[in-house]
Amino acid sequence: MGTFSFFVDGYNDSPEELYSIQSVRDFFAKLHGHWPYWFYFADLRSESLQIVTACLLQNVSARKIVGEPMANVQLDPMELIQFVSKGFTPMNQMCERANLSEHAIWQRTGEIFRYYGLPFDVPPPFR
Fold first, then answer.
1. Is residue 97 very low, low, confident or very high in pLDDT (cuts 50, 70, 90)?
2. Neighbours of 115 (CB within 10 A)
3. Which pTM value belongs to this model?
């Protein structure tokens, strides 16, 4: 849990950002359809899950400043909330398979919310 980073190679010379390359978007959409366990496995210390998320969402806007290495990406808030809420079912399935406690699942849920900059004010479960 929390140790998997997602990388795409072969587009290093492309001026486009990965989330705007249709073949990359198609790949992640197909992968997501077969393997929706991103929230359980993703290493939240990197931006790789953000890139995957941008590839999976339909409404993404970006602003790139020439000479800057990163683009400023904006995700549609409602679409992001829907994506995040759907992602918890497969995450919880993996947590149950791993015999994680309710408290550990609550912690991971909070980490996911904070990763996306979403508020998380749910009190912890009783131990």
1. very high
2. 17
3. 0.82
